[in-house]
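Quick question: what would this complex look like in 3D?
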Amino acid sequence: MSNENTYNPHVSVDCVVFGFDSDNLKVLLIERTIKEQNESYNDKKLPGSIILNDENLDEAASRVLTELTGLKNIYLSQFRSFGGPERTKNPRDILWLENTTQLKIGRIVTVAYVALIKIDRKILSNSEETSANWYDLNDVTKMKMAFDHADIINRGLEYIRHRMDIEPHLLFELLPRKFTISQLRTLYDTVHQTRSDVRNFQKKVAQWSYVVALEELEEGVPHRAARLYKYKK
Amino acid sequence: MSNENTYNPHVSVDCVVFGFDSDNLKVLLIERTIKEQNESYNDKKLPGSIILNDENLDEAASRVLTELTGLKNIYLSQFRSFGGPERTKNPRDILWLENTTQLKIGRIVTVAYVALIKIDRKILSNSEETSANWYDLNDVTKMKMAFDHADIINRGLEYIRHRMDIEPHLLFELLPRKFTISQLRTLYDTVHQTRSDVRNFQKKVAQWSYVVALEELEEGVPHRAARLYKYKK
């Protein structure tokens, strides 16, 4: 093995953070602006960055998410690393990386993490440093995305879909603390790519002992207020 | 971000290859010899190496496994990356790395893969280049291991245990094409860390439509020959 065939790739972490707004699954993205001569170019990227010398991968993921979105104490699961040489085939990505990091960068291997959070968590958006916002997952394919981040998001979605098959309680990470059965059904159908019948879904949920009806109705809705439920561990 | 805080780690792949010898789960390891002044030091490591410039992570894992063990066309699943700075805290590991790769190495992030194979697959062992052999998984904790490879093996085992809960057919990747119920039970118990009752296990297997009895008995055994079974997809 010689130096010729192995220059050091940089290593980064990227966080795929999912939320749910009662209608759609959302993903947290950063607006990126690249200045090119007289014009500037905009696209979206995952919250991510190069790892630092003294931190491990999990620490890097937490640090980067906090720096770019303000989110703290988020449970991040590592789900896959992405490292093909074609990840940096777009000269715009390289230009942006080198401007941001002040490093000469050839190749980046990124370790991807996924998190499920409640969408009302406070996000540090539109500060000077960063501009993080929720985007509809259905729109990701239509948006201009940095690197292979559209692919990473898809793989992250596959991963949570798979995990929710085994650990259905993960659904409740995405719901408000008090939720309606209609919200639960919409989320369930979105994740599992199904279209549940309203009555059958009611019956199914009635068998989930961890979904508990509250003596409360939703408030401030234009339709008849539905009963609220909570998840009991 | 400055250069001071981010030097490039190297990126490697490591393969955790499991086999089953009718009694125990085994893992495929490479004997490593490190020459130190007048003496030499021996320990074991996973088949792994630095990735090359022009290959992606999956390609690197397949190439490295073939180079070090002769195994070809093995289905490798990426399961986790390991990247703490303490991975290279042992000066012996650094010495060996630098001798082997002719590179100056500070830190290595490794992307780990797992494979399940039949133990009678031909392994290129004790060649000039390499020395790959099967080792009992129970002995790994007692052996001297390179880097954090003992930890990577444990995480690999957790991963396959978890996957076999969902995809029980993976068990049959480790069994011979024709197997006895006793072999199947031993493997099942080893993976799930259980001790199944012989009769109850027979009843359980009777319900697995994909386990089919053959009109054949095992041969050349000192005890009464047991019926052979096969896995039907």
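Answer marked as accepted. The two ends of chain B are 53 Å apart (CA to CA).
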